[in-house]
């Protein structure tokens, strides 16, 4: 897999997980004083999950894949994104 193709694939994931991380951090910053400790803990967990997604996305682009498409990392990344969005939904239900 060429370097350009790796970064094309990774850039989509970097943008999606970066936007999710940015919005989560922005929401935490804006509503931190008004939220309960449980909601704060869930928000911190979401920030950690989305930060891990950004790191995993960058690793898709930087690691040289000789054996083809990095399916395991992509599936792991998608699983973490679904986990993060699911935790966000649970936070809305809790609030």
Automatic annotation (TrEMBL):
Parts of the chain that traverse the membrane: 12-33, 39-62, 74-94
Keywords: Membrane, Transmembrane, Transmembrane helix
Name of the protein in its database record: Uncharacterized protein
Provenance organism: Actinoplanes couchii
